[in-house]
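Please, structure for the following, as tokens.
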Amino acid sequence: MRDGTSAGIPAIARGAIRAFFLYDVADTIDLSGVPSALGSLTSPAPLQVRPQTAPSFIQFASPPLVVARSPKFATKIFDYGVVSLAFAETFEGEWADFVAAARRLRRDETLVSASREELDRILEDLRSVLDDPHTPLMEDYFVFEVERFAQPMAAKDLAETHRAELARLVTSEERPLATREVDDVFRVSFSYYEDDLAVIEWESAFVYDANPGPVADILEFANSQLLELRTYDALLDADLDRIYKFKPRAEELRFLIVDVRELLDRSGNALKFIGDAYFARLYRGASSRLGLDEWQRQIDAKLRTVSETYRFIQDRAQHSRDTLLEVIIILLIVIEVVVGILALHR
């Protein structure tokens, strides 16, 4: 063994390292026009589920489209303005080599550049179906998958005996972590069967599952929501700066509030969970780890500021109208009095 800390973990018979590069490119994307715009084969991408999972438990309101376009990246397009480019490198071999490959890919800037070049090619063709396009904002996420070890491995053994090694993998740390940090990594972890495990961190996750696709899809979706929230937060920051510097019209503020709320609802309701299914719990755990609730609170606070500014402008406009009306009434009274006095002196 090259690394004493990995002693006891069997070799990986089938695994993969998956990198997601998600870009928010527009307010919305008209999915109906994507096939003709790209001239590529497309197909809906409903969320994969376990065979025994009831379809009604988990589903996209509007399934994203998978585009058969690039040999290097799997392309997925969401109707709320996000394009996801996923790179996957299959793996089989020793655990230490798996960890080394994971660190290499996480630090590979050429992979990021390649994803951006592919995005630019896609956007060139998608111009006609983009609603209010903007400068792309990117979020990346890595999933380290093991479908099968060379020897049977229980999730309990991984989570208890080898938790330190798994924590180092998902944090990409070379030195051993303190016990408290290892425990924090495992704070968001899930198992459904005795032989599957998902450990979720804010930049990456470890997934041990014979069918890792559903978990990877949920992590991809959660990161797309994080990207949406970051986009709206930046939009509100820019608009608040403009509000403080200039005097916007009330109609502009009302449009901003309605627009952001509508877009948030669209992305927030993109995936529906019914009942307390395993994947619903996993999604909530991923949302918590990514801090989606905190981002939402920040956006809500900024929307309240915009709303208060809108009400202030409305109140000031109403006050101005009331004052003008009072002046007009007074003038009419004065005119009526003057006319009356003139009439008496005739």
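Residues 4-210 form one domain. Confidence is low (pLDDT under 50) at residues 1-6.
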